[in-house]
Amino acid sequence: MPSSLRPRRDDVLLAVSGLAGGLILWLLGLHTQGGRPFYAPWITLVPLTVMASMELLRRSAPRTALTVAALALITDQFTRGNLATVLMFTDVMYAAVLYGTPAAARRLPVATLLIAIASTIGFLAWFRTPEALLIGVVIGLVCFIPALTGVSVRSHRAAAEAARLAAEQTARLAEMDRIQAVVAERARMARELHDMVANHLSAVAIHSTAALSIDDPETSRSALKVIRENSVEGLAEMRRLIGLLREGGEDGAPAAAPTLVSLDALIEQTNTNGAPGGLVCTLRDSRAGSAGPLPTPVEFAAYRIVQESLTNALKHAAPGPVTVRLDLADEVLTVEVTSVFGSRPGPTAPGSGAGLVGMRERVALLGGTFRARAEPDGDDTKIWWVRAELPVREREMRE
Protein backbone atom coordinates (compact mmCIF):
# COMPACT_ATOMS: atom_id res chain seq x y z
CA MET A 1 0.00 0.00 0.00
CA PRO A 2 1.39 3.46 -0.87
CA SER A 3 2.55 5.43 2.13
CA SER A 4 0.02 8.19 1.31
CA LEU A 5 -2.87 5.70 1.66
CA ARG A 6 -1.49 3.88 4.67
CA PRO A 7 -3.97 4.31 7.54
CA ARG A 8 -2.93 6.07 10.70
CA ARG A 9 -2.98 4.21 14.00
CA ASP A 10 -5.82 6.40 15.27
CA ASP A 11 -7.86 5.57 12.18
CA VAL A 12 -7.27 1.87 12.68
CA LEU A 13 -8.43 2.16 16.30
CA LEU A 14 -11.59 3.98 15.19
CA ALA A 15 -12.33 1.33 12.56
CA VAL A 16 -11.75 -1.56 14.95
CA SER A 17 -13.74 0.09 17.72
CA GLY A 18 -16.65 0.89 15.39
CA LEU A 19 -16.70 -2.61 13.95
CA ALA A 20 -16.50 -4.21 17.39
CA GLY A 21 -19.26 -1.98 18.76
CA GLY A 22 -21.46 -2.78 15.78
CA LEU A 23 -20.91 -6.53 16.23
CA ILE A 24 -21.84 -6.29 19.91
CA LEU A 25 -25.07 -4.45 19.05
CA TRP A 26 -25.80 -7.04 16.34
CA LEU A 27 -25.21 -9.95 18.72
CA LEU A 28 -27.49 -8.34 21.29
CA GLY A 29 -30.15 -7.88 18.63
CA LEU A 30 -30.23 -4.10 18.99
CA HIS A 31 -31.29 -2.62 15.67
CA THR A 32 -32.41 0.83 14.65
CA GLN A 33 -35.39 -0.16 12.54
CA GLY A 34 -37.54 -3.03 11.41
CA GLY A 35 -39.77 -4.06 8.55
CA ARG A 36 -37.14 -3.46 5.89
CA PRO A 37 -36.86 -5.33 2.54
CA PHE A 38 -33.64 -7.05 3.57
CA TYR A 39 -34.73 -8.26 6.97
CA ALA A 40 -32.15 -11.02 7.40
CA PRO A 41 -29.95 -10.09 10.39
CA TRP A 42 -26.62 -10.89 8.71
CA ILE A 43 -27.21 -8.36 5.91
CA THR A 44 -26.80 -5.56 8.47
CA LEU A 45 -23.15 -6.57 8.79
CA VAL A 46 -22.40 -5.67 5.16
CA PRO A 47 -22.81 -1.85 5.43
CA LEU A 48 -21.26 -2.04 8.92
CA THR A 49 -18.11 -3.68 7.56
CA VAL A 50 -17.90 -1.31 4.60
CA MET A 51 -18.32 1.71 6.90
CA ALA A 52 -15.60 0.43 9.24
CA SER A 53 -13.21 -0.03 6.30
CA MET A 54 -13.88 3.57 5.22
CA GLU A 55 -12.70 4.71 8.64
CA LEU A 56 -9.25 3.50 7.56
CA LEU A 57 -9.32 6.03 4.69
CA ARG A 58 -10.87 8.95 6.58
CA ARG A 59 -7.60 10.88 6.64
CA SER A 60 -5.64 9.58 3.63
CA ALA A 61 -8.51 9.56 1.11
CA PRO A 62 -11.41 11.54 2.66
CA ARG A 63 -13.30 12.08 -0.60
CA THR A 64 -13.37 8.37 -1.48
CA ALA A 65 -14.20 7.44 2.09
CA LEU A 66 -17.18 9.82 2.17
CA THR A 67 -18.56 8.61 -1.17
CA VAL A 68 -18.43 4.93 -0.22
CA ALA A 69 -19.64 5.66 3.32
CA ALA A 70 -22.69 7.50 1.96
CA LEU A 71 -23.56 4.50 -0.20
CA ALA A 72 -23.11 2.21 2.79
CA LEU A 73 -25.40 4.42 4.92
CA ILE A 74 -28.09 4.37 2.22
CA THR A 75 -27.77 0.57 2.02
CA ASP A 76 -28.08 0.36 5.79
CA GLN A 77 -31.52 1.99 5.56
CA PHE A 78 -32.81 -1.05 3.66
CA THR A 79 -31.66 -3.43 6.41
CA ARG A 80 -32.56 -3.71 10.07
CA GLY A 81 -29.90 -1.03 10.69
CA ASN A 82 -27.02 -0.63 13.11
CA LEU A 83 -26.33 2.41 15.27
CA ALA A 84 -22.55 1.93 14.89
CA THR A 85 -22.88 2.35 11.13
CA VAL A 86 -24.60 5.71 11.56
CA LEU A 87 -22.08 6.92 14.15
CA MET A 88 -19.13 5.97 11.97
CA PHE A 89 -20.68 7.85 9.06
CA THR A 90 -20.80 11.03 11.16
CA ASP A 91 -17.07 10.62 11.81
CA VAL A 92 -16.33 10.08 8.11
CA MET A 93 -18.32 13.24 7.27
CA TYR A 94 -16.39 15.18 9.93
CA ALA A 95 -13.06 13.88 8.58
CA ALA A 96 -14.01 14.70 4.97
CA VAL A 97 -14.44 18.36 5.93
CA LEU A 98 -11.43 18.47 8.24
CA TYR A 99 -8.88 16.65 6.06
CA GLY A 100 -10.37 17.22 2.60
CA THR A 101 -9.63 19.95 0.11
CA PRO A 102 -10.56 23.58 0.86
CA ALA A 103 -13.28 23.36 -1.80
CA ALA A 104 -14.79 20.31 -0.10
CA ALA A 105 -14.64 22.06 3.27
CA ARG A 106 -16.66 24.95 1.80
CA ARG A 107 -19.21 22.88 -0.12
CA LEU A 108 -20.03 19.98 2.20
CA PRO A 109 -21.67 22.03 5.01
CA VAL A 110 -23.83 23.85 2.46
CA ALA A 111 -24.72 20.64 0.65
CA THR A 112 -25.63 18.76 3.85
CA LEU A 113 -27.75 21.69 5.05
CA LEU A 114 -29.65 21.73 1.75
CA ILE A 115 -30.10 17.93 1.95
CA ALA A 116 -31.48 18.20 5.48
CA ILE A 117 -33.93 20.97 4.50
CA ALA A 118 -35.01 19.20 1.30
CA SER A 119 -35.50 15.91 3.16
CA THR A 120 -37.60 17.57 5.84
CA ILE A 121 -39.84 19.22 3.25
CA GLY A 122 -40.09 16.02 1.23
CA PHE A 123 -41.03 13.79 4.18
CA LEU A 124 -43.54 16.36 5.43
CA ALA A 125 -45.18 16.40 2.00
CA TRP A 126 -45.14 12.60 1.86
CA PHE A 127 -46.26 11.61 5.35
CA ARG A 128 -48.15 14.81 6.22
CA THR A 129 -47.51 14.24 9.93
CA PRO A 130 -45.50 16.28 12.48
CA GLU A 131 -43.34 13.22 13.13
CA ALA A 132 -41.82 13.71 9.69
CA LEU A 133 -39.90 16.67 11.16
CA LEU A 134 -37.91 14.22 13.25
CA ILE A 135 -36.55 12.63 10.09
CA GLY A 136 -35.15 15.99 8.96
CA VAL A 137 -33.66 16.54 12.40
CA VAL A 138 -31.96 13.14 12.33
CA ILE A 139 -30.57 13.78 8.85
CA GLY A 140 -29.24 17.15 10.06
CA LEU A 141 -27.60 15.49 13.08
CA VAL A 142 -26.02 12.78 10.95
CA CYS A 143 -24.85 14.99 8.04
CA PHE A 144 -24.92 18.73 8.70
CA ILE A 145 -23.72 18.89 12.33
CA PRO A 146 -20.55 16.78 11.71
CA ALA A 147 -19.75 18.89 8.65
CA LEU A 148 -20.25 22.09 10.62
CA THR A 149 -18.03 20.76 13.41
CA GLY A 150 -15.34 19.91 10.88
CA VAL A 151 -15.45 23.45 9.49
CA SER A 152 -15.08 24.90 12.98
CA VAL A 153 -12.14 22.67 13.89
CA ARG A 154 -10.49 23.31 10.53
CA SER A 155 -10.84 27.08 10.98
CA HIS A 156 -9.31 26.90 14.45
CA ARG A 157 -6.43 24.79 13.17
CA ALA A 158 -5.84 27.18 10.28
CA ALA A 159 -5.83 30.12 12.69
CA ALA A 160 -3.40 28.30 14.99
CA GLU A 161 -1.13 27.45 12.06
CA ALA A 162 -1.23 31.05 10.84
CA ALA A 163 -0.34 32.25 14.34
CA ARG A 164 2.51 29.73 14.51
CA LEU A 165 3.87 30.82 11.12
CA ALA A 166 3.56 34.47 12.14
CA ALA A 167 5.43 33.73 15.36
CA GLU A 168 8.17 31.93 13.43
CA GLN A 169 8.39 34.80 10.96
CA THR A 170 8.61 37.28 13.81
CA ALA A 171 11.33 35.19 15.43
CA ARG A 172 13.26 35.03 12.16
CA LEU A 173 12.95 38.79 11.66
CA ALA A 174 14.04 39.40 15.25
CA GLU A 175 17.05 37.14 14.72
CA MET A 176 17.91 38.96 11.49
CA ASP A 177 17.61 42.31 13.29
CA ARG A 178 19.82 41.00 16.09
CA ILE A 179 22.46 39.77 13.63
CA GLN A 180 22.38 43.06 11.74
CA ALA A 181 22.67 44.99 14.99
CA VAL A 182 25.66 42.87 16.03
CA VAL A 183 27.31 43.33 12.64
CA ALA A 184 26.67 47.08 12.73
CA GLU A 185 28.04 47.33 16.27
CA ARG A 186 31.12 45.35 15.32
CA ALA A 187 31.69 47.63 12.34
CA ARG A 188 31.30 50.67 14.58
CA MET A 189 33.76 49.24 17.10
CA ALA A 190 36.22 48.43 14.31
CA ARG A 191 36.01 52.00 12.98
CA GLU A 192 36.45 53.45 16.46
CA LEU A 193 39.39 51.21 17.29
CA HIS A 194 41.08 51.91 13.98
CA ASP A 195 40.57 55.68 14.03
CA MET A 196 41.48 56.12 17.69
CA VAL A 197 44.60 53.94 17.84
CA ALA A 198 46.01 53.84 14.30
CA ASN A 199 47.34 57.41 14.46
CA HIS A 200 49.34 56.81 17.62
CA LEU A 201 50.59 53.36 16.61
CA SER A 202 51.69 54.68 13.22
CA ALA A 203 53.76 57.37 14.93
CA VAL A 204 55.22 54.80 17.31
CA ALA A 205 56.15 52.51 14.40
CA ILE A 206 57.79 55.29 12.37
CA HIS A 207 59.80 56.81 15.23
CA SER A 208 60.86 53.46 16.67
CA THR A 209 62.16 52.48 13.21
CA ALA A 210 64.01 55.77 13.03
CA ALA A 211 65.52 55.27 16.50
CA LEU A 212 66.74 51.79 15.55
CA SER A 213 68.12 52.73 12.13
CA ILE A 214 69.86 56.05 12.99
CA ASP A 215 72.82 55.78 15.37
CA ASP A 216 72.45 59.23 16.92
CA PRO A 217 71.70 59.77 20.63
CA GLU A 218 69.78 63.00 20.03
CA THR A 219 67.65 61.41 17.33
CA SER A 220 66.95 58.41 19.52
CA ARG A 221 66.05 60.63 22.46
CA SER A 222 63.66 62.69 20.30
CA ALA A 223 62.09 59.54 18.83
CA LEU A 224 61.63 57.95 22.25
CA LYS A 225 59.97 61.14 23.48
CA VAL A 226 57.48 61.01 20.61
CA ILE A 227 56.96 57.28 21.19
CA ARG A 228 56.21 57.88 24.86
CA GLU A 229 53.77 60.71 24.10
CA ASN A 230 51.89 58.63 21.53
CA SER A 231 51.85 55.59 23.80
CA VAL A 232 50.32 57.62 26.64
CA GLU A 233 47.78 59.24 24.31
CA GLY A 234 46.98 55.90 22.69
CA LEU A 235 46.39 54.39 26.12
CA ALA A 236 44.07 57.27 26.95
CA GLU A 237 42.21 56.70 23.70
CA MET A 238 41.86 53.00 24.50
CA ARG A 239 40.42 53.88 27.90
CA ARG A 240 37.98 56.23 26.20
CA LEU A 241 36.97 53.45 23.83
CA ILE A 242 36.40 51.09 26.75
CA GLY A 243 34.26 53.75 28.40
CA LEU A 244 32.33 54.17 25.15
CA LEU A 245 31.69 50.43 24.95
CA ARG A 246 30.49 50.43 28.54
CA GLU A 247 28.20 53.35 27.67
CA GLY A 248 29.58 55.47 30.47
CA GLY A 249 32.49 55.99 32.76
CA GLU A 250 32.77 55.37 36.45
CA ASP A 251 30.32 58.18 37.19
CA GLY A 252 27.76 56.74 34.78
CA ALA A 253 28.12 59.57 32.24
CA PRO A 254 28.74 58.58 28.63
CA ALA A 255 32.21 59.16 27.25
CA ALA A 256 32.46 62.45 25.38
CA ALA A 257 32.85 62.16 21.62
CA PRO A 258 35.55 64.33 19.98
CA THR A 259 34.33 67.37 18.04
CA LEU A 260 35.79 69.79 15.51
CA VAL A 261 36.96 72.01 18.37
CA SER A 262 39.63 69.38 19.05
CA LEU A 263 41.10 69.66 15.55
CA ASP A 264 43.77 72.18 16.63
CA ALA A 265 45.22 69.66 19.06
CA LEU A 266 45.06 66.95 16.41
CA ILE A 267 46.89 69.20 13.89
CA GLU A 268 49.58 70.02 16.45
CA GLN A 269 50.07 66.35 17.26
CA THR A 270 50.35 65.50 13.55
CA ASN A 271 52.97 68.19 13.06
CA THR A 272 54.99 66.74 15.93
CA ASN A 273 54.74 63.18 14.61
CA GLY A 274 55.30 64.16 10.97
CA ALA A 275 58.22 66.56 11.44
CA PRO A 276 60.90 63.87 10.84
CA GLY A 277 59.19 62.98 7.56
CA GLY A 278 58.96 66.59 6.37
CA LEU A 279 55.20 66.96 6.83
CA VAL A 280 53.70 70.35 7.67
CA CYS A 281 50.01 70.25 8.57
CA THR A 282 47.72 73.31 8.49
CA LEU A 283 44.01 73.83 9.17
CA ARG A 284 41.86 76.16 7.07
CA ASP A 285 38.40 76.53 8.57
CA SER A 286 36.22 78.75 6.36
CA ARG A 287 32.93 78.10 8.15
CA ALA A 288 30.88 81.16 9.00
CA GLY A 289 31.57 82.38 12.52
CA SER A 290 27.89 82.87 13.23
CA ALA A 291 27.00 79.28 12.35
CA GLY A 292 25.45 77.32 15.19
CA PRO A 293 26.77 74.01 16.51
CA LEU A 294 26.60 71.08 14.15
CA PRO A 295 24.79 67.85 15.03
CA THR A 296 26.95 65.57 17.16
CA PRO A 297 27.06 62.71 14.60
CA VAL A 298 28.28 65.12 11.92
CA GLU A 299 31.04 66.61 14.07
CA PHE A 300 32.11 63.18 15.26
CA ALA A 301 32.27 61.78 11.71
CA ALA A 302 34.14 64.87 10.43
CA TYR A 303 36.71 64.60 13.23
CA ARG A 304 37.30 60.91 12.52
CA ILE A 305 37.66 61.55 8.77
CA VAL A 306 40.29 64.23 9.41
CA GLN A 307 42.04 61.99 11.94
CA GLU A 308 42.19 59.03 9.58
CA SER A 309 43.32 61.22 6.65
CA LEU A 310 46.16 62.63 8.77
CA THR A 311 47.10 59.11 9.85
CA ASN A 312 47.31 58.06 6.19
CA ALA A 313 49.41 61.11 5.41
CA LEU A 314 51.74 60.24 8.29
CA LYS A 315 52.10 56.71 6.88
CA HIS A 316 52.35 57.36 3.14
CA ALA A 317 52.61 61.04 2.17
CA ALA A 318 55.75 62.48 0.64
CA PRO A 319 57.41 65.48 2.33
CA GLY A 320 55.35 68.61 1.90
CA PRO A 321 52.21 70.37 3.09
CA VAL A 322 49.18 68.57 4.49
CA THR A 323 46.13 70.82 4.35
CA VAL A 324 42.82 70.31 6.15
CA ARG A 325 39.92 72.41 4.87
CA LEU A 326 36.47 72.78 6.41
CA ASP A 327 33.60 74.58 4.72
CA LEU A 328 29.90 74.88 5.48
CA ALA A 329 27.54 75.88 2.67
CA ASP A 330 23.96 74.99 1.80
CA GLU A 331 23.68 72.97 5.01
CA VAL A 332 26.46 70.65 3.87
CA LEU A 333 29.75 70.35 5.77
CA THR A 334 32.66 69.74 3.40
CA VAL A 335 35.82 68.12 4.79
CA GLU A 336 38.85 68.09 2.50
CA VAL A 337 42.35 66.82 3.25
CA THR A 338 45.22 67.03 0.74
CA SER A 339 48.79 65.79 0.92
CA VAL A 340 51.68 65.17 -1.46
CA PHE A 341 51.26 61.82 -3.20
CA GLY A 342 54.44 59.79 -3.53
CA SER A 343 57.14 57.98 -1.64
CA ARG A 344 59.35 59.60 0.92
CA PRO A 345 62.71 58.68 2.42
CA GLY A 346 62.87 57.23 5.86
CA PRO A 347 60.71 54.77 7.76
CA THR A 348 57.04 54.30 6.92
CA ALA A 349 54.18 52.32 8.42
CA PRO A 350 52.20 49.68 6.52
CA GLY A 351 48.55 50.25 5.64
CA SER A 352 45.63 47.84 5.39
CA GLY A 353 43.03 49.91 3.53
CA ALA A 354 40.61 49.68 6.46
CA GLY A 355 40.82 53.43 6.99
CA LEU A 356 39.25 54.30 3.64
CA VAL A 357 36.56 51.70 4.21
CA GLY A 358 35.78 53.17 7.61
CA MET A 359 35.57 56.71 6.21
CA ARG A 360 33.19 55.59 3.46
CA GLU A 361 31.00 53.84 6.03
CA ARG A 362 30.85 56.91 8.26
CA VAL A 363 29.83 59.14 5.36
CA ALA A 364 27.29 56.62 4.08
CA LEU A 365 25.62 56.41 7.49
CA LEU A 366 25.00 60.17 7.34
CA GLY A 367 23.76 60.10 3.75
CA GLY A 368 26.75 62.04 2.39
CA THR A 369 29.27 61.53 -0.39
CA PHE A 370 32.92 60.48 -0.15
CA ARG A 371 35.75 60.56 -2.66
CA ALA A 372 39.46 59.77 -2.38
CA ARG A 373 41.94 59.75 -5.25
CA ALA A 374 45.28 61.01 -6.55
CA GLU A 375 45.22 64.11 -8.80
CA PRO A 376 47.95 65.89 -10.82
CA ASP A 377 49.34 69.05 -9.24
CA GLY A 378 51.85 70.78 -11.46
CA ASP A 379 54.88 69.21 -13.08
CA ASP A 380 55.54 65.60 -12.14
CA THR A 381 53.72 65.92 -8.81
CA LYS A 382 50.43 64.59 -7.53
CA ILE A 383 48.36 65.21 -4.47
CA TRP A 384 46.28 62.71 -2.53
CA TRP A 385 42.83 64.23 -2.20
CA VAL A 386 40.14 63.15 0.29
CA ARG A 387 36.77 64.90 0.24
CA ALA A 388 33.66 64.17 2.30
CA GLU A 389 30.37 66.05 2.09
CA LEU A 390 28.16 65.59 5.15
CA PRO A 391 24.57 66.92 5.33
CA VAL A 392 23.99 68.72 8.62
CA ARG A 393 20.19 68.58 8.65
CA GLU A 394 18.87 65.70 10.79
CA ARG A 395 16.12 64.77 8.35
CA GLU A 396 18.68 64.16 5.60
CA MET A 397 20.72 61.72 7.67
CA ARG A 398 20.19 58.02 7.47
CA GLU A 399 19.23 56.16 10.57
What does this structure look like?
The chain has a 5-stranded mixed beta sheet with strand order 1-2-3-5-4, with helices on one face. It is rod-shaped. α2 runs parallel beside α4, α3 packs antiparallel against α4 and α4 packs antiparallel against α5. By secondary structure, the protein is of the alpha+beta class. The two termini are 60 Å apart.
Please, how many domains? 2
- Overall strand count: 5
H/E series: HHHHHHHHEHEEHEE
Report the β-strand fraction as a percent range: 5-15%
What is the straight-line distance between the termini? 60 Å
**Overall SS class:** alpha+beta
Using the CA coordinates, give the radius of gyration: 44 Å
Main sheet: strand order: 1-2-3-5-4
List segments where confidence is low: pLDDT < 50 over at least 5 consecutive residues: 248-254, 395-399
How does the SSE layout of this entry go?
Layout: H1 9-28, H2 45-55, H3 62-76, H4 83-99, H5 102-127, H6 132-213, H7 217-245, H8 263-274, E1 279-285, H9 296-316, E2 320-329, E3 332-341, H10 354-365, E4 369-376, E5 382-391
Parallel strand pairs: 1-2
Antiparallel strand pairs: 2-3, 3-5, 4-5
Give structural attributes.
single chain, 399 residues, alpha+beta, Heat Shock Protein 90, 2 domains, 5-stranded mixed sheet
Tell me briefly what this model is.
The chain is an alpha+beta fold and 399 residues long. It has helices at 9-28, 45-55, 62-76, 83-99, 102-127, 132-213, 217-245, 263-274, 296-316, 354-365; strands at 279-285, 320-329, 332-341, 369-376, 382-391. It has two domains: 9-171, no CATH class; 257-399, Histidine kinase-like ATPase, C-terminal domain (Heat Shock Protein 90, 2-Layer Sandwich), CATH 3.30.565.
